[in-house]
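Hey Z.,

So I finally got round to the 76R thing we talked about over coffee. Here's the setup:
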Amino acid sequence: TVEAPETIEGWYVQHDLFTFQWSQWRTFAPAKRHQLVEEAAAWLKVQTQTEAGDSAAFNVVGHKGDLLLTHFRPSLEALNQVKVSLRQTEFFSYLEPVYGYLSVIELGMYEVIGVVKRQLSAQGLEEGSDAYNAAYQEALQQQKEALQDRLYPEIPAGRYQCFYPMNKRRGETHNWYTLSMDERRSLMRGHGMTGRKYAGRVKQIISGSVGFDDWEWGVSLFADDPLVFKKLVYEMRFDTASSLYGEFGEFFVGIRFEPEQFGDVLSG
Ligand code: 76R
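And the result:
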């Protein structure tokens, strides 16, 4: 058994994809359409103004769906509340859920823990001792406080969202979960260096989903230029962390819209 990395967690995350029942929509008179648009917009507005967390809506490109909703919330209960409140609207009668993904914002502590451990040994604390464990927990807690903004963010700005789930490979030859901590740390460092080249052009939210959903992580990228998604993801395919160990699910791309734009989204 090799050592599992420490992670710290923030908001819970739900991505929901719906198709819209266009054939019914086309039969509605303008007044009925207006009423549904108003209802949907009001619902979305309430979600975006939630006290703890955030929500955003995206107009999905291509055949995979029509509407992508992304929600950050403090608990599973709060995510469920979002789900039920949407299902109570009349607007929901014209939505078909086609995909969803549950995860929790996760920060890997590969680098941080390396530093903490060196500090604790330098202080002469013996690994496994009560004093060591207490100091270790305190250091983690401090990190968590220092990283509040990244654990509890608003949904990043950016006109476009690209979402996909991924795993780290567990194959016969290449198995992420049998690599040593140092090997994984070094691969994650290379990964982070590639990522940092895109600073300012893309915001990424990495959310862990082991035990929650069918893949191990959700990757949510936000950018004002959709080509940045392609360039970043492509460049990362050449990083060992992705080339030997990355496995990817379906990709979804959407264009952000505000509650008051619901009417435009539905009229094209
Ligand atoms: O959190 C940090 O910024 C520190 C460095 C870092 C970590 C620990 C980092 C940086 N990532 C980390 C963890 Mn990432 N990331 C992905 C994908 O398509 C692919 O090939 C992979 C999908 C992208 C596009 C991306 C972008 N990252 C992770 C993890 C957890 C792994 C674990 O713990 O074992 C996954 C699954 C993952 C996947 N990453 C960055 C980026 C970008 C753009 C950065 C730089 C962020 C910045 O410094 O601004």
